[in-house]
């Protein structure tokens, strides 16, 4: 795979800053299978996956990505065995406890997308604290999708719109976007899914309509900086038409 990154002089293809996606979203999948392939418990896969996130965060800053959205726990993941759900919650708690200071010092602004209410009150408090503590940082925006579901987000937005008494004729795309958890951030340019699954699993249903998708068979704990570079290079080769023709795009 790395070979495809090399140009004919044998050098690794450089990223072109103008075509680095501003907002990258990642469906971090395959922790369980990574662990199973090594005869380890699934929880070990989640731990390694969390370690990997540090590397990917660094690489994003280095490559000039401004916003990273990570899918860490879906509204459907509550259906997993209770012990696994507990581990996933405790990993989030541990990450906040152990990494918050370093993330803050690296200029990371933490945001949460999803429904906080279903989580333990102590964890809710930690998440709110982490977001508040880092809110003025500008190096990288890290959007953590935890207890997130795209459909759930739309339900949440519709409820708020109805409750605020907005007239039907005032409802348009911008208004709906402003009620999404991600507001006021721009939509993701690139959505990466690791582990070989080719589906969205309820991720960024509203925001991802014109995102470029990149699928790789690599399990999340093994998705490293070079794999990310490869995804960004592939993105730079795509033509985003947004419904228009190639000729129109060239004239812009
Ligand atoms: C992704 O890895 C992490 C979460 C969904 C929380 P998985 O746990 O889904 O790993 P696989 O897909 O079973 O290998
Ligand atoms: C999607 O992965 C959710 C996260 C990565 C957090 P899943 O492993 O839950 O997705 P499905 O069930 O295979 O679609
Ligand atoms: Mg999975």
Strand order of the largest sheet: 3-4-2-1-5-6
Helix/strand/pairing category: alpha/beta
Count of structural domains: 1
Q: Into which percentage range does the β-strand content fall? A: 5-15%
Shape: globular
Strand segment count: 6
**Tally the helices: what do you get?**
8
From N to C, what is the helix and strand string?
A: EHHEHEHEHHEEHH
Give the integer mean of the pLDDT values. Answer: 94
Which homologous superfamily in CATH is the superfamily? Decaprenyl diphosphate synthase-like
What name is given to the CATH topology? Undecaprenyl pyrophosphate synthetase
Please tell me how large the radius of gyration is.
19 Å
The CATH architecture term is 3-Layer(aba) Sandwich
Query: Major sheet, described briefly?
Result: 6 strands, parallel
- Beginning-to-end CA distance, first to last residue: 34 Å
- CATH C-level category: Alpha Beta
Q: Ions, cofactors, ligands: which are bound? A: 3-methylbut-3-enyl trihydrogen diphosphate, magnesium ion
Q: Which regions are unreliable across 5 or more consecutive residues at pLDDT < 50?
A: none
